[in-house]
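TL;DR need structure tokens for one chain.
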Amino acid sequence: MLPAAAAVPTLPIGFAEYRERLAPIGRVVCVEDNNASYQVVEGAMRHLGIECTRAETATAGIEQVFATRPGLVMVDLHLEGGDGAAVLRGLRSHPEMSDLPIIVMSADTTEPTRTRVLALGADAFVGKPIDFGQLVETMARLVEPPEARKHAA
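>> reply
TL;DR here they are.
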């Protein structure tokens, strides 16, 4: 049984307007080793009309991003047997991935953690448990052209 915090959400009224705005994302790769956390993200993406696929390790995440070319990547910072920062470094080391929007997720919401992941190349940071309003607003900012984006905390 999933913990209450991991229940697949029903997005509040008003989020329907984001479906069209977020449509260019098309597909999200979620690098998440925790099944309950992935189900929350996948459920939110489903409600938004966005395909979501999962990779459970940093290596698998990088491979899946190159294979599928998603419109957005979501990465758990603390992966079992690895580190979400490795995904950031691995993707950002390739010029063709420089404009790919990447959101890092973590229960560690301290300012040093936020600062570190943004310095490593994340476009945004979302704390866990995920606030769906914040997630959707962050995603909406990230579909803007890269030169118009600002780091979203």
